[in-house]
């Protein structure tokens, strides 16, 4: 039993190394415009891995630097793959919900006694972390479309197209251009708050799992295997979507303070010449 508690105590840290980071789900939500799938993958993967602040820009730039060679027959299967992705995410969530229900009702803990919701709280607290990660990326980037899919039109038509894109294969999405903005104070505040939540999530899970009583090593292995299964399934789906996103992103550039200063100087010079 002591060995089972040790292994279970390490489970949140192990899952964090295998799981998705808020930056990756944020790219699927903010850049790819697939917040529904990103939310389902975040809910089905009860593990959060944090990146450093400068790695936000590096992760985005990797979309343009890496090439993804996709077999031709996979392109024809894209609609089927989209359905399978949502089914896989739903299955991962169902696995986590059923496991947390069993743990809350059948397992005793040394710290959280008479409370059955702590396992659910730990499992889905990562959704909040991923949400703040998406907000941080939104503050750091500006995404524009290069096609005509979103030009003009009524607001309801725009929302209708955005809803349709949730189930549209990534390879058929409109080409995108990404502008990486300067790091603002609000971005740093949201980023550090996201990191603090990530650390608290790992510590909370470590305390909760290591305090489980009267559990055998065999049961501990089953728990870890089920958690890892959900994490790995969501990881595979997210990796595949981000690989397809590289085919859609056609340009990435940085907005620097020097460029803003030069633009301001040129504008001021043009205004002075106009006055003359």
TrEMBL record:
Keywords: Membrane, Transmembrane, Transmembrane helix. It comes from the Eukaryota. The chain crosses the membrane at residues 32-52, 73-97, 117-139, 185-214, 220-238. The keyword Transmembrane applies. The keyword Transmembrane helix applies. This is Uncharacterized protein. It comes from Zopfia rhizophila CBS 207.26.
């Amino acid at each position: 039993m002591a060995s089972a508690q040790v292994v279970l105590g390490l489970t949140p840290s192990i899952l964090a190394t295998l799981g998705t980071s808020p930056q990756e789900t944020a790219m699927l939500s903010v850049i790819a415009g697939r917040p529904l799938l990103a939310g389902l993958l975040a809910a089905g993967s009860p593990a959060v891995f944090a990146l450093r602040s400068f790695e936000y820009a590096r992760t985005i730039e990797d979309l343009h630097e890496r090439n993804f060679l996709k077999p031709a027959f996979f392109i024809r299967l894209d609609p089927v793959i989209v359905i399978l992705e949502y089914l896989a995410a739903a299955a991962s969530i169902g696995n986590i919900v059923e496991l947390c229900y069993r743990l809350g009702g059948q397992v005793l803990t040394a710290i959280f006694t008479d409370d059955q919701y702590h396992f659910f709280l730990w499992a889905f607290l990562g959704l909040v972390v991923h949400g703040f990660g998406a907000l941080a990326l939104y503050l750091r980037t500006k995404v524009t479309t290069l096609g005509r899919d979103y030009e003009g039109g009524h607001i309801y038509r725009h929302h209708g197209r955005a809803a349709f894109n949730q189930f549209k294969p990534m390879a058929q999405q409109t080409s995108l251009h990404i502008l990486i903005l300067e790091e603002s104070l609000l971005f740093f505040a949201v980023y550090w708050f996201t990191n603090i939540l990530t650390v608290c999530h790992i510590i909370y899970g470590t305390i909760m799992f290591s305090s489980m009583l009267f559990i055998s090593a065999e049961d501990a292995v089953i728990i870890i295997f089920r958690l890892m299964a959900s994490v790995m399934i969501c990881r595979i789906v997210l990796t595949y979507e981000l690989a397809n996103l590289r085919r859609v992103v056609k340009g990435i550039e940085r907005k620097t303070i020097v460029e803003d200063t030069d633009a301001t100087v040129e504008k001021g010079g043009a205004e002075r010449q106009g006055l003359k």
